Amino acid sequence: MASVVAEVNYPSKEVIDVFHMEIDQILGKLGAAASKKSIERWLNNFEDGDRISALEILQRLRFVQELEQFEFAETIVAQIVADSNSDAVFYFCPIAKYGKSATQFSYYIGKSNTFRKLERQRQTKFVVRDIDIQSVVFDDRTVVIFFDDFFGTGGSFDKHFNKFKNKAAAGFANVTNIFAACGYYMEKAREAIATVDPRIKIVGDLHERIFGDPPMMFATASQIEKKKTLARKYADDNHLFKDDVEYHSLGYKGSEALLAFPYMPPNNTLPIIWSSNANWYPLLPRAHDDILRKLTEFRHGLAFASSKIELGLPEDFHVFNGMTDVKFILFGMLRMMKKQIPHPQIARLIGIPIAIFDKFMVLGKDMGYIGEDYKLTGDGEIILEDVIEQVKAFNEQKKVDTSIRAVKYMPKKIPRK
Fold it and tell me: Which CATH architecture has domain 295-400?
């Protein structure tokens, strides 16, 4: 976008229309995580004169697609194995409580071909609970990997590393191979991790600050200052990210990150992207309730659609029989995979453990709906399109025949933990 255009005041709908090429590029990057409507709603957070600048910030967002998560995981594990002895034993330790970003990333680590090979050779293990830490045997073969999808400031790493060290056996002090592994890290985190323990080697890609030195993200210092002032102003005025001590208007501890993963952005990312405080509309929400609100729409029609797979659509719409839980879950998975919802998030939304999700993935592959690349096959696309068309037909029929009962496609409770 030319900077002279940024001086013009545009309502958000006009921004979408005028800058349709830029919007299409953003949507191509975000995939199912956003739509023109959600971008328009997000732009409505800003005053008319600031919307172009907000869009220019959004253009520079680094959004990691789920396929990249699989690739990151394989690259990380393969690099660590290459830097270790052939008989090494690898302990992978997520840097977070269960359900946080690191345990989400555990799913992709576990799918790595190199990790699976280590599993078959009994050379690896996830270390999650305190009892797992206490059971680790430390010797000259031991390799310990502390991992997360992203290291922003290094604070979480420091906290978890010291917790591990305090609970581990005395032999941990003699371990020479320790890694901090991630998809991306910031320079502030690299510096902090280097001071934690000199044995630690960091593995991952550097993520530059969005308001760093030009021309990394913006061409000139004046452009950087203008965008930075805008991001801070709206975050401050709307209290988008504040704890008991300070405002984090440019991301946690002033990180200035502009990065998002398929399940959510880290809190190091500018809060104007993800916060839902003060009625701010988040483009890529972090708050659990916001994520559920955006994802529950994908349940629409699942019960009826699943019965189409199981029984075929009844000719008489007045007669509607149920479906099996297996087909309910499988069709739900297919539909959300089509929408590019990340696998761990699908499992949480449907309400099944990730281990059960994996079994359904095998079932989907056996039925020919899911390929080895974790994407829908041609047959999967066909059955999905067919079922969705039948759902639409059923909904149209309901409009003209009021005696048809509404289909109960939503569970009474949505899993929240």
Answer: Orthogonal Bundle (1.10)
Residue type, 300: H
The Cα–Cα gap between 37 and 24 comes to: 12
Per the structure block, which two tokens stand in for 324? 């099996």
Segment-wise mean pLDDT, segments of 10 residues, the chain, 417 residues: 50 80 92 89 94 95 92 96 96 79 86 95 92 91 96 95 93 95 96 96 96 87 95 96 89 96 92 94 79 50 43 34 57 82 80 79 88 87 78 72 52 40
66-206 under CATH 3.40.50.2020, yes or no: yes
187-196 helix and 155-167 helix, angle to the nearest 10 degrees: 20
Cβ-contact 66, 262 below 8 angstroms: yes
Hey, what amino acid is at 337?
A: M
Cα separation values, 141 from 136, 144, 181, Å: 12, 10, 19
8 Å CB contact between 179 and 203? yes
Per-domain residue ranges for the chain?
A: 3-62+211-273, 66-206, 295-400
pTM for this structure? Answer: 0.77
**Which tokens hold the place of 21?**
């090429």
| Paired residues of 249 in beta bridges | 251
